[in-house]
Amino acid sequence: MLTPGRSSRGGCTVRASGQRRPCPAAVGVRRHAGAGGGWPGSGWRGWQRCAEHGEPLAVVMADVDHFKQFNDNHDHQAGDQQLRRVAGVLAAEVSGVDELAARYGGEEFVLILPGIDRAAAMQRAERVRRQAEAAMAAAGLPGSISLGVAVTVPAAGGDPALLVRCADQALYRAKHGGRNRVECAGRDDLAVLAQAGVIAAETVARPPQPTLSSAP
After folding, report:
1. Distance (Å, rounded) from C-alpha 39 to C-alpha 7?
2. What confidence tens digit (pLDDT) does each residue in 89-143 have?
3. 48-100: per-residue pLDDT in tens?
4. Buried (b) or exposed (e) across 179-208, using 16+ Cβ within 10 A?
5. Is the pLDDT of residue 15 over 70?
6. Distance of alpha carbon 70 from alpha carbon 78, whole angstroms
7. What mean pLDDT value characterizes the chain?
8. How far, in Å, CA of 160 to CA of 165, rounded?
9. Residue from 146, 203, 207, 138 nearest 173 by CA
10. Which among 39, 44, 89, 120 is least surrounded, fewest beta carbons within 10 Å?
11. Is 55 a catalytic residue?
């Protein structure tokens, strides 16, 4: 899992600044060294814009479920192809010059969505979950992804790596809640950001939106 201030474990941009780029699944990945530690460098512009205009910013962390087991049961080449399918779904999801999809290393990916509120972020994360599951099934290699969402209005000078941590904690809950689901960071998670000066304290008072899940 990510921790504040840790640089990304090597990732390649799926789409940034409005341009699509290929995302090699296992080799030739590009390391992000953003101004926010674990924050991909090309996502910094969106953070600054949202801070200046008081707009929300959403981070979605995605992780392929049971990926080690998948590699053990098939092979690493099949695993690489599975990661490419997930990357393709993420690439198709983003739009606009400041939205970003990136690989964070291993089987973990991130979406940075400036100007997107909590409800819209949850809807988009759920759409990514469904489409990734469908893409894997269509290839004859069924699988799923779990996702964690964190949304806030950034504070000028705040550390965006802490928002990544909130999304990562939500992802952790999705994993332990049964996988193949979406979880959203709650009020307690955001309180940590408020104490750190990353977001305005009054934003914590907003009640969290219901969790979306594929579970019955």
Report:
1. 7
2. 998 998 888 898 988 878 899 999 999 999 999 999 999 999 999 999 999 999 9
3. 899 999 999 999 999 999 988 888 788 888 888 999 999 999 989 988 888 98
4. bbbbbbbbeebbebbbeeebbeeebbeeee
5. no
6. 9
7. 76
8. 9
9. 146
10. 120
11. no
Q: Which of 93, 99, 107, 183 is catalytic?
A: 107
DSSP three-state, residue 204: helix
Round to whole Å and give the CA distance between 17 and 20.
9
Q: Of the spans 19-23, 33-37, 135-139, which averages the highest pLDDT? A: 135-139
Closest CA relative to residue 63, chosen from 166, 163, 132: 132
Strand partners, 181: 213
Residue 95 φ then ψ, to 5°: -155, 160
CB 22 within 8 A of CB 101: no
CA-closest candidate to residue 147, choices 74, 78, 79, 89: 89
Tokens of 22: 């290929």
Query: 108: closest CA among 70, 147, 161?
Result: 147
> Does residue 17 have a pLDDT over 60?
no
